[in-house]
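Recall the central idea of this unit: under ordinary conditions, the amino acid sequence of a chain determines the structure it adopts. In this exercise we apply that idea directly, starting from the sequence alone.
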Amino acid sequence: MLLYTKIKKINSNGFTLIEIIASIAILGLVIAVFLPIFPQMMSWSKNADNELVASNLLSQVANDIKENEVIFNDIKINLVEDHHYNCERNQTYSIQRDALDTLPDYDLNKSSYDVAVEVCQSNEYKEKELGLYRTHIKIQAGNPEKTISDTYFYLTEDGGTNEEI
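Accordingly, the structure predicted from this sequence is:
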């Protein structure tokens, strides 16, 4: 009996080797499960940042288009005089930043954003009679195939926008 109590007393003060190995293995499994989440969280954060900037940039681009007389006159000339930009036939007039050099560069948060603007008029919905131009703005970041955000609105003949029509 004396031997049993002496052994029990010696072993009750620390962890055994098996307990230490088991705890390290469990800790390793937990780390292995949660490790891939951190890079994914960084990617989600970057995407959320791009989407926030793009949604704010949409209204800025719409304002730049309606305030810039060169762009607006170019739209009117191409849509009124050339009747082949018809929405029903999916023929849109694209405003190219390089061609007109009137749309500003949109560099925000150390990222460059490309803007694609397409305008057309429809005879079917009386857009010509009402003096409305159907406008589609797409915001793209880095990769032109990746559209972050886009919106549709009507540009009126006097240069204003009417998003409630």
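The chain has a mean pLDDT of 74.
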